[in-house]
Amino acid sequence: MIAPMFDTVLNLPLAALRRLARAVRELDERRRASGSEPVARVDLGLRRSPLDIPDDFQTHALTITVDRLRQLQATGEGPAVVDVRAAADFARGHIPGALSMPGDSIVMGLAEIPPGRGIVVVGDRAGREARRVTRFLRYRGLDESWMLDGGFPAWKDAVGPGT
Question: Of the residues 1, 78, 102, 134, which has the fewest C-beta atoms closer than 10 A?
Answer without folding.
Answer: 1
